[in-house]
Amino acid sequence: MNISDRNKLLAIPPFLRLAFRPFFWLAALSACVLIGLWLAQLSGLLVIPRPSLWWHGHEMLFGFGIAVVCGFLLTAVQNWTGKPGLAGMPLLALVLLWLGARICLLLPLHWAIPAALDLAFNAGLVWALSRYLAGPGQAHNRLLLILPAFLTLLNGFSYWLLASGELGWARDLWLAVLVWFFMVMVIIGTRVIPFFIARRAESETPERNPLLMKATLAALLVTALCWLVGVTPDWWRWPAWVAALLLLWPLRIWYRPVVAREPLLWSLFLAWLTMPLGLALLAWKPQWLAVFLHLPAIGGMGLMMLSMMMRVSLGHSGRFVYGPPKLTWALWLVILAALVRVVMPWGLPAQSLLAWQLAGGLWIIAFGAFVIRFLPVLGSARVDGQPG
Fold it and tell me: Could you say which architecture CATH assigns to the domain 3-378?
C-alpha cells in the first residue's frame, strides 16, 4: 500500500473503515431490539405490522444473522486477497440498505418496500464479495460467494411467502436458512478455530481435512433441501444424524487444554458442539422441533457470532485479542439463554412464556453489553495507527 492510498483510508471515519465496525455493532444492537420487540409482542404490549412468527424468524436470520456474516466476510477478504476491504461510501450504502429494510418491516408499509431494500442489500453483499472472490486464485473461496448468492434467493422466497400468505412453509424455510448459517460456520470454523487454538497453545495447527468438510457440507445441504421441499421427518432425520456425527469429529482433533482456560476459545468450541447436539435432538424428537431448534440457533449460531465479533473487533482494531474489554460473563449468558429456551418449555410447557421472557432477557443483556463496551473499540481508529 502506497502513502497516498494509506492517507485516503485514514481519512475515512473510523466507523466506516472496515465492514466489521458498523455491521458488528448494528448486529448486536438489532439482537437486542428484535428480541425486545418480540417479547413485547408476546406479552401483548405492542403489535408488529407483519405476521409475528414470519417476522421473528426472518429478522433473526436475514436481519441479525446476515449482518454478522456480512461484517465478517467483507473484513476477512482483505486478509485472503491482500486488497483493501470495502470502506467509506460503498460500505455506508450497504449498511443503509440493511438498516432501511429492518426499519421498513416495522412500519405499516407495503411488503415490496422492505423486500426491495433487503434484496438490494443481499445483492450488494454478493457484488462486494465478487470483487474479491471471483478472480483468479480464489477458487478455494468461491463457495463463500455462492452461498450468499443462494441466500438472496431464499430471502426472495421468504418475501413471496409473506406476499402470498403461504406462511405454513415459513418454518421449513427458517430451518433451511439456519442450516445455511451452519454451512458458513463450518467453512469459516474449520479454517479459524484450529488456528486460534494452536496459536494460543503454541502448537502446530492440525491439517485440515477437505474430504470431511465436503461430507459435512453435503449432509447439511441434503438436510436443508429436505426441509425446503417439506418432506417428512422419516426422510430428513437421516441426513441430520449424519451431519451431527460428522460435526463431532473435528472437535477431538482440535481440543487442547488451553481451550478450557480461554473464553474466546471455549465459546467457539461449545458453539460448534451445539450444532451437532441440536441436529441430533431434532432428529430424535422432530415433534419438539419448534423448541429444540433454539439450541443450535442460540447456543450455536448466537454464541459463535458473539465470540467471533469480540475476537475480530479486538484483533482488527490492533488490540490483543485476549485482552480487555472482556465479556466472559456475556458468553455465559448466551449459553444460559439457550438452555432456558429449550429446557423449560420442554420440561414445563405451561411455563413457556416465562421461559421465552427469561431467555430473551439474558440474550438482550449479553448483546447489549457488546453494544456498550465495544462501541469505543469499533468507533475509534486502530490503536496501532494502521488503516482498517
Answer: Up-down Bundle (1.20)
